[in-house]
């Protein structure tokens, strides 16, 4: 797919999101709610335990919360597109088009995310910066950028592969719910991995989830120095590579199923 | 002139008006973002002074292009919308003031949406309706028997609604709208998407209900055959105003004096230069289709003249209601908004 | 008059049954949904437990207290969802004209919408809630007096009215804005996040908000203070601990008024 075509898809997706202004205002509110709830929570428990915990200072955990939340919001993707198109059969049209299905989806997600980044993520970031004392060391910037790109791709492919299950299962909703449950618990969107009981952490390190929000957030807030970040980024890259293979295999299987069975 | 069957007035609309304020969408990418912050509004007059009175037992066609205001009028009469001004009464009840009472007196069929319970057998839907409309057991049983017989619903009663074909579903929806014996039936596009046979069955059923039960029927449709076959009376709406209210039969004589002549010659059709009163609409091999403006019985002469050529077959047709209606709409395009109202 | 009410109740019951029967046509997805919801809650509970395990207490609320708090919320949420599930995707109903049908029937449109879906799988919420309540009560050593045992169903009932009323309110907004999916999601799902934790962790403004404006705190926090015999942290007034059913009735009545206003607006401005 040519970059020009890619960005055309991105633009269409972006425009689609601007149609609902009431929704957009509400969703900003939603983001703030979570920031609010969790910064209150951490302040309370950190005060009780003397101002520092699990390697975080109070200021550090607040930075983490805001950054992770902004990432989470900006990484919003529309999960319902593929299952919807499979259900009503219009996915057949996508197969006829001479473009990579996965790239087209990626472009749609990027457009969608771009909107949520600018319309929701940035306002929340700006207001939070005014309300709290945020840390984001400048020298972590390059590592942060790389880590963010990788985690976006990782989340995209996770969503993509789960959505592909709609080719086999009419009720794909439970799988999507399961995915969300795992992400909510294990990706570090709200509770950083450091707070989890020590015996679980090695297990979680073997899973891809923590690399979605936790890894980029700790790099951005300087919780880990850029030198250590390299190791994390390497693991992220490995997971991304693995998912590239998985999604390619699944897509081949899915499109074959469609062709043979006719939906 | 509207048909006077001597029945009491059952639907009364007096100078109904309905305005909507609509948001103007932003143009282009910049407009879209701008629209997030401020929005321009426009006022649309969907119904602009509509008045009519319908007598009990009438079978009225209510016709208009999309956006002409017919759905809006129906929504006012069924209690879904409140008019901006004007008065409407159905069976003595003001629909938007006494919604529940009105609902008990009317039956409504929305062509594209069923009122039946999608996942349940047809029978259960009727049981639900019996409860909702508080129909007494005797009346219910009697009505179900009759409807079931006329519409041939017997084999359908235990089938889940989602498994019915469109034609079968429409029959059940019609029955559902009538099971509580309403005096007035509103039909919105009931034959859309149906095959010819199904359409005929529905039409026969409606004729029957109108004749034997005296049900007043208001039919909105795009299918002019429905109008031609069922509706004695026709109300035409354009841009919120009535442009025709009278007998369907009179529509032809009042508006258009065109006749369509289909001629088949033995050989190639000859040139008809000597007959300027005819215009060629179409030509296919030995067949010609000709249009003739009949201003006063000149048709006999025309046929006589044509017959002098080497004619194999001639037939004369009156234009369909559809073509008449279309040409009326075309005419009103060039006229100022209000056109004469005939009574 | 009374036979009229009886008739209406019978009709409502029939509507609910019809929805349930319709739902049960898809038995497989029923169980799948229960499984999925259970999993989702366990994940949420997991996050909560992680925090508790690390920090031992939140403002003197121990793990047992927190479990009880969570349980009370989730238990009443189950019943709320059971009865008010029909409101789900209400904005779609408005947009595609399905709502018009309810106006054409001689029955309350609100009742028809609410009863249009009767999702029995929501019992999963209540099961999880019940388990959390049980263990929470045990771990915190609640002493079950007769008064407390009678209060529990009342509190749950009040909690259902509050949460149901909130859902009705939030869906009534659709009459004006047509699309309210994001609002519903925020208010119903994100809103509950506030009261998963004891509201003592928030500043004065938020506590006021959750008590007097968006009274979610009455669903679990204030009653929990009562059941757990929490001393030493009175917010605003000690009487608040007992007011849940009252707040529920008031809020529910207000939401019915809002709904009526919404229908009036719909009937004058179309869609």
Please, could you describe this protein's structure?
- The complex is a heterotrimer of chains A (263), B (343) and C (271).
- Chain A has eleven helices and two strands, in the order ααββααααααααα.
- With 263 residues, chain A is mainly alpha-helical.
- In chain A, α2 (21-48) runs antiparallel to α3 and α7 runs antiparallel to α10 (214-220).
- Chain B is of the alpha/beta class and 343 residues long.
- Chain B folds into two domains: 9-253, P-loop containing nucleotide triphosphate hydrolases (Rossmann fold); 257-318, 2-Layer Sandwich (Alpha-Beta Plaits).
- Chain B has helices at 28-34, 70-77, 99-105, 122-132, 137-151, 166-178, 196-213, 224-230, 248-255, 299-307, 321-334, and strands spanning 9-24, 40-55, 59-64, 85-90, 106-110, 184-188, 216-220, 233-238, 241-247, 258-265, 278-284, 287-293, 311-317.
- The termini of chain B are close together.
- The model of chain B is unreliable at 334-343 (pLDDT under 50).
- Chain C starts with a helix and ends with a helix.
- The interface between A and B is small, with 6 and 6 residues.
Number of helices of chain B: 11
- The overall pLDDT average of chain A reads 86
Number of strands of chain A: 2
Radius of gyration of chain B: 24 Å
Q: So what's the oligomer here?
A: heterotrimer
Mean pLDDT of chain B: 83
User: Which H/E pattern describes the elements of chain B?
Assistant: EHEEHEHEHHHEHEHEEHEEEHEH
Instruction: Write out the strand line-up for the largest beta sheet of chain B, numbering strands in chain order.
Output: 5-6-7-3-8-9
- Which CATH class of the largest domain in chain B? Alpha Beta
Low confidence ranges of chain A: none
H/E element order of chain A: HHEEHHHHHHHHH
> Biggest β-sheet of chain A, characterized?
2 strands, antiparallel
CATH fold-level assignment of the largest domain in chain B: Rossmann fold
Alpha-carbon Rg of chain A, integer: 19 Å
Biggest sheet features of chain B? 6 strands, mixed
Distance N terminus to C terminus of chain B?
Answer: 5 Å
Helix % of chain A is over 70%
Beta fraction of the residues of chain A?
Answer: under 5%
CATH architectural arrangement of the largest domain in chain B:
3-Layer(aba) Sandwich
Q: What spatial form of chain A do the alpha-carbon principal axes imply? A: globular
Domain tally of chain B? 2
């Amino acid at each position: 797919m040519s970059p020009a075509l890619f960005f055309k898809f991105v633009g269409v997706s972006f425009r689609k999101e601007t149609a609902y202004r009431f929704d957009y205002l509400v969703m900003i509110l939603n983001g703030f709610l979570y920031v609010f709830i969790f910064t209150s929570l951490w302040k309370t428990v950190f005060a009780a335990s003397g101002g520092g915990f699990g390697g975080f200072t109070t200021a550090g955990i607040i930075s983490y919360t805001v950054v992770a939340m902004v990432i989470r919001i900006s990484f919003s993707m529309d999960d319902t597109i593929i299952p919807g198109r499979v259900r009503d059969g219009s996915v057949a049209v996508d197969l006829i088009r001479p473009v990579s299905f996965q790239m087209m989806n990626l472009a749609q997600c990027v457009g969608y995310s771009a909107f949520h980044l600018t319309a929701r993520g940035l306002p929340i970031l700006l207001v939070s910066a005014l309300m709290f004392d945020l840390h984001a060391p400048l020298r972590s910037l390059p590592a942060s950028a790389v880590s963010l790109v990788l985690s976006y791709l990782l989340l995209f492919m996770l969503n993509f592969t789960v959505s592909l299950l709609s080719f086999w299962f009419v009720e794909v909703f439970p799988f999507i719910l399961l995915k969300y449950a795992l992400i909510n618990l294990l990706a570090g969107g709200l509770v950083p991995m450091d707070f989890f009981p020590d015996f679980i952490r090695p297990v979680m390190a073997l899973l891809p989830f923590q690399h979605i929000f936790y890894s980029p957030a700790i790099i951005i807030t300087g919780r880990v120095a850029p030198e250590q970040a390299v190791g994390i980024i390497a693991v992220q890259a490995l997971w991304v590579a693995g998912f590239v293979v998985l999604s390619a295999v699944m897509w081949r299987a899915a499109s074959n199923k469609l062709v043979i069975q006719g939906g | 002139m509207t048909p006077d069957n001597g029945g009491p007035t059952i639907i009364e609309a007096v100078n109904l008006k309905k305005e909507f304020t609509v948001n103007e969408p932003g143009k282009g990418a910049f407009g879209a973002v701008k629209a997030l912050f401020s929005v321009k509004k426009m006022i649309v007059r969907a119904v602009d002074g509509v008045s009519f009175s319908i007598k009990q037992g009438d079978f009225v066609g209510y016709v208009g292009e999309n956006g002409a205001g017919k759905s809006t009028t129906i929504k006012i009469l069924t209690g879904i919308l409140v008019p901006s001004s004007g008065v409407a009464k159905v069976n003595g009840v003001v629909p938007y003031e006494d919604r529940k009472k009105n609902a008990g007196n009317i039956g409504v069929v929305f062509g594209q949406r069923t009122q039946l319970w999608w996942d349940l057998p047809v029978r259960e839907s009727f049981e639900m309706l019996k409860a909702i409309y508080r129909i007494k057991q005797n009346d219910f049983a009697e009505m179900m028997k009759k409807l079931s017989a006329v519409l041939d619903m017997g084999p359908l009663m235990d089938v889940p609604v989602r498994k019915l074909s469109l034609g079968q579903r429409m029959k059940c929806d019609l029955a559902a709208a009538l099971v509580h014996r309403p005096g007035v039936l509103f039909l919105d596009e009931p034959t859309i998407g149906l095959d010819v046979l199904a359409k005929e069955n529905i039409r026969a059923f409606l004729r029957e209900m109108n004749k034997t039960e005296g049900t007043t029927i208001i039919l909105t449709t795009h299918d002019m055959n429905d109008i031609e076959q069922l509706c004695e009376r026709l109300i035409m709406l354009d841009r919120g105003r009535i442009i025709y209210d009278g007998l369907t039969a009179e529509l032809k004589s009042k508006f258009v004096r065109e006749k369509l002549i289909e001629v088949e010659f033995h050989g190639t059709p000859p040139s008809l230069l000597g007959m300027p009163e005819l215009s060629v609409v179409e030509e296919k091999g030995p067949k010609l289709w000709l249009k003739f403006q009949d201003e006063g019985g000149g048709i006999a002469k025309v046929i006589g003249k044509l017959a002098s050529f080497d004619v194999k077959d001639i037939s004369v047709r009156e234009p369909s209601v559809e073509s008449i209606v279309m040409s009326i709409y075309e005419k009103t395009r060039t006229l100022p908004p209000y056109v004469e109202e005939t009574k | 008059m009374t036979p009229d009410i009886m008739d209406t109740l019978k009709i409502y019951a029939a509507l609910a049954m019809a929805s349930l029967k319709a739902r049960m046509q898809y038995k497989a997805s029923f169980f799948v949904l229960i499984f999925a919801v259970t999993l989702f809650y366990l994940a949420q509970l997991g996050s909560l437990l992680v925090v508790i395990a690390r920090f031992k207490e939140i403002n003197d609320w121990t793990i047992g207290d927190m479990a009880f708090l969570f349980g009370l919320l989730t238990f009443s949420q189950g019943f709320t969802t059971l009865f008010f599930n029909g409101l789900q995707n209400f904005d779609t109903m408005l947009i595609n004209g399905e709502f018009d049908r309810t106006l054409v029937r001689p029955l309350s449109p609100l009742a028809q919408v609410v009863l249009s879906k009767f999702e029995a799988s929501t019992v999963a919420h209540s099961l999880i809630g019940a388990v959390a309540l049980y263990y929470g009560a045990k771990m915190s050593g609640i002493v079950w007096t007769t008064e407390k045992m009678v209060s529990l169903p009342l509190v749950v009932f009040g909690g259902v009215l509050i949460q149901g009323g909130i859902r009705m309110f939030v869906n009534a907004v659709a009459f004006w804005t047509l699309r309210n999916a994001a609002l519903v999601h925020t208010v119903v799902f994100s809103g509950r996040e506030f009261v998963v934790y004891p509201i003592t962790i928030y500043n004065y403004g938020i506590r006021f908000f959750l008590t007097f404006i968006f009274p979610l705190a009455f669903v679990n926090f204030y009653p929990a203070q009562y059941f757990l015999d929490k001393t030493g942290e009175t917010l605003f007034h000690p009487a608040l601990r007992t007011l849940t059913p009252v707040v529920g009735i008031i809020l529910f009545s207000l939401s019915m008024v809002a709904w009526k206003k919404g229908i009036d607006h719909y009937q004058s401005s179309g869609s």
